[in-house]
Amino acid sequence: MIKDTEVVSVQIDGDRYHDTRHARVETDHIWRKTWLLAALESDLQKPKSTVTFDIGHDSIIISRANDGALYAYHNACTHRGTRLLEEGVSSSPLITCPYHAWCFNLDGQLRGAPDPNSFTAGLPGDRLRLKPVQLETWQGFVFVNMDRDAAPLSDFLGNMVKRAAPYQIAKMDLLEDQTVSVDCNWKAMIDNFSELYHVDHIHPQHKRFVDCPNASDELFENGHTGLHVPGFVTDSRYPVPDKPTDYQEMQLTALGIDASAFHGRVADIPAAITQAKREQSGRKGYDYSALSDEQLTTVFQYNLFPNIILSGSPEGLWMMRSRPHPDDPSKSYLDKWTLQLNPDPALGGASEHKQTMHAASGNSEITNGRVARDCFGHEEILSGSKSMTETIDQDISLLARVQAGARSSGFDRAWLSDQEVRVAHFHDVLNETYHKAGLIDAS
Questions:
Q1: For the chain, how long is the longest CA-to-CA vector?
Q2: Pick from 155, 185, 220: which residue ends a domain?
Q3: What confidence tens digit (pLDDT) does each residue in 346-372 have?
Q4: How many CA atoms lie within 13 A of 90 on its CB side?
Q5: Do 65 and 174 lie in a common domain?
Q6: What per-residue confidence (pLDDT) applies to 367?
Q7: Domain assignment present for 31
């Protein structure tokens, strides 16, 4: 654990954002050794369901077999290594190699191969089953670890288990599934979502619904971090407006509160929101009994090392995941799942009216069936033909310039403010890996 006074001294050089040696160390000692978020349990509810998760040059299949058990194994045929399934969600009773038609059960066991008598050494089932990968679930997410000797997921998550417990993440429905390719290293994306220092400059809309200057940071073991931002308020660096902002009006309306009643008393909105949620707890489909008053009006963000960002409120969540490009360290992918709490009909929830009060996303509607995954390039965000919300679009619009600057001979290492303590903590853990691999010294 680092101290705030050590923030500026954490070594963050430009090489780690583009050097292939760093990427190789990350592959061997991070991606293949760490618990990784691979899938939603909701995509694996039924037998014969499969999800394929790609990370760098590795690909993992997660399947729900006929016996109801979940399995994870490498997406590589044990005959000659052919990739078996493309990335995504699918359903099939068997997995068949597209090259030579070797066939595997959903538990990874070899079921058969054409012309078995032509293998003079036989087809030993134990030797030729798909190579297994560790699998555990948490809060409706499926995690995998390619290191068969890795400690349990709960050990890795540590305090994150307690922090996430009051929120009903596992009950949330998937509203949107997006993946954008970005011209920056995967770590530049994590850096961006690890500090609020840039918010006032490139996200001016935030001053209308959150108070970033009064946000609080948390640093945890294993590189995880937390952030808590007061919501339903305006930025304390600016005068309080005479009437609710457009975001506040939207949030009040979602709870059935007349926004006009707060003309001249905008500062009273958080207390009114808290009271309304408490009065509605156990009704209208939501149960807030496990949450504190502060949690009812606070936007949270938890970054799970190395590449997961969970950002949301009691009613909704963004799950963002930064993944490395398999061949070019200067490129990466950002996955974003938008999740929304499903009001419980037993608590008076109306299935036809399921709204979110996530401060940054506004009201949405849940649709029946699994939403399609939408994949696109950052150029489409820049052109306005695609969006991942205004805030994330603004971030992506600058990350290519961040990446370009990291390669400049005029940049040697970062000089951090106290507002970037979570960036420092992330790189402090990375530096332990780089140091063991001989890429940086211990200073």
A1: 86
A2: 155
A3: 777 665 444 444 433 333 344 457 899
A4: 14
A5: no
A6: 47
A7: no
Pair of tokens at residue 369: 């069936």
Question: 87: closest CA among 132, 138, 34, 43?
Answer: 43
CA gap 38, 168 in Å, rounded: 20
Local structure of 96: helix, strand or coil: strand
Give the CATH number for residue 373: 3.90.380.10
Domain of 98 in residue numbering reads as 37-155
Burial class (CB in 10 A: 0-12, 13-18, 19+), 231: buried
Tokens describing residue 180: 């954008």
- The CA distances from residue 177 to 87, 102, 132, 263, in Å, are 14, 32, 27, 38
Residue 415 counted as domain residue = yes
What span, in angstroms and rounded, lies between the C-alpha atoms of 29 and 13?
19
**144 and 237, same structural domain?**
no
- Report the CATH number that the domain containing residue 60 is assigned in CATH: 2.102.10.10
State which of 104, 122, 155 marks the end of a domain. Answer: 155
pLDDT, tens digit (0-9, with 9 covering 90-100), for 232-280: 999 999 999 999 999 999 999 988 899 999 999 999 999 999 999 998 8
Same domain, 285 and 239: yes
- CA 136 to CA 129: how far, in whole Å? 20
- Show the 3-state SS of 251-298: HHHHCCCCHHHHCCCHHHHHHHHHHHHHHHCCECCECCCCCCHHHHCE
How are the residues of the chain apportioned to helix, strand and coil, as percentages rounded to the nearest 5?
A: 35, 25, 45
Distance of CA 51 to the CA centre of its chain: 17
* 128 and 173 together in one domain: no
What is the pLDDT averaged over residues 202-219? 96
Give the H/E segment covering residue 399: helix 390-406
Residues 38, 35: Cα–Cα separation, whole Å? 9
Question: Residues 136, 196: one domain?
Answer: no
Domain count, the chain: 2
